[in-house]
Amino acid sequence: MHSDRPLLDTRRSVRRALAGLPPRADDAPPLVLVALSGGADSLALAAALAEVAAGSGVRAGAVIVDHGLQRGSDDVAARAAAQAGELGLDPVLVRQVRVASAGGPEHAARAARYAAFAEVAVETAAAAILTAHTRSDQAEQVLLGLVRGSGLRSLAGIPPVRQLTPECVLLRPFVVATPEITRETTSRACARLGLTAWHDPHNADPAFARVRARERVLPILETELGPGVAAALARTADLAAEDAAALDALAAAALDRVRVTSSGETVPGAALPGETGPDAAVPGESAPGAATVRLDAAALAALAPAIRNRVIRRAADAGFGAQLSREHTATVAALVSDWRGQGPVFVPGIRVTRAGGELRFSAQIGSPRRGRTDEPGVASPGE
């Protein structure tokens, strides 16, 4: 490989990502921040952004989040900030966060980090924040999803674009780069630029499933099945993302068709959440005056299961901000596909009943029981 190839590839991927940013109303260059940890991936991304920013018509800065989970984390953050300044990034913002204990260390750290990103995006009016997930990360994500029996949306892996705030998008240029950008690419880019990367000890800790997948499982698969397994897993994410997007679009249209208004009619374009319900304030039942989402049960039954399940999840999310697992979705879907006159079911934050040919979703008061599922065990991501 030519020594400049990693630099060219990383810069090309950032240019492509920035090309999709809308112009500001005042024609001023939009601010783009790179999420910088000091590791090789984010350093390579920071260097690429610094190089292409002017030509792409953006201002380039950096945001560094100190999770405080390791001794000397403040020194690591200060060093990353210094490297960002040396690359010419401005502004360079350092945020210290408190990581909660609930949900596991990886999940809690990620939640704190992205909350900090959102706050910084609002404070600085940033148009985009770039993160340095690579195709290597994508392969690991898909592998972990497969062994957990996840559905299509989970197998789509790490999305290259998502809305962080109403005015700021989160971009991951290396996830969809062509040619592929892996950890080897970013390490070579840093070496070519003389950048010394920080090595996060958590990335070598076998207590984390992702580390075991990276250090133990993938090498065995490459040895036993031949080279290219990681690249193939990452391609699986691309294909799954395309199919998931198509199914999600079909589900959105289907939800529009099966939505029942207060007049008892299915009216396309009816907005969520639903009408105000009169239910009494009984623990575990609907709150008085709470919104109720109503879906036509017969119309739901006519849908293919993959679309029906997505409609149920969309109704729960749009109406109540609830993210239903596959097991919770199946519990609700049984009111349609296996209707035997059963009573209400409870999923996190929502009471779902079938009455008058409708599925009715309403917010619970209190939590008299956890979301019931038909099968025991840990909930896996839905499709």
TrEMBL record:
Chain sites annotated for binding ATP: S37, G38, G39, A40, D41, S42
Primary location class: cytoplasm
Keywords associated with the record: ATP-binding, Cytoplasm, Ligase, Nucleotide-binding, tRNA processing
Recorded GO MF terms: ATP binding; tRNA(Ile)-lysidine synthase activity
Record domain tRNA(Ile)-lysidine synthase substrate-binding: where: 295-359
EC number: 6.3.4.19
GO annotation, cellular component aspect: cytoplasm
Localization in the cell: Cytoplasm
Residues covered by the tRNA(Ile)-lysidine/2-thiocytidine synthase N-terminal domain: 32-215
GO biological process annotation, one example: tRNA modification
Region described as Disordered: 264-287, 364-383
One Pfam family of this chain: ATP_bind_3
Reactions mediated catalytically: cytidine(34) in tRNA(Ile2) + L-lysine + ATP = lysidine(34) in tRNA(Ile2) + AMP + diphosphate + H(+)
Task performed by this protein: Ligates lysine onto the cytidine present at position 34 of the AUA codon-specific tRNA(Ile) that contains the anticodon CAU, in an ATP-dependent manner. Cytidine is converted to lysidine, thus changing the amino acid specificity of the tRNA from methionine to isoleucine.
NCBIfam families referenced in this protein's UniProt entry, alphabetically: lysidine_TilS_N (TIGR02432)
UniProt comment concerning the protein's domains: The N-terminal region contains the highly conserved SGGXDS motif, predicted to be a P-loop motif involved in ATP binding.
UniProt record similarity statement: Belongs to the tRNA(Ile)-lysidine synthase family.
Protein name: tRNA(Ile)-lysidine synthase
Lineage of the organism: Bacteria, Bacillati, Actinomycetota, Actinomycetes, Micrococcales
Gene expressing this chain: tilS
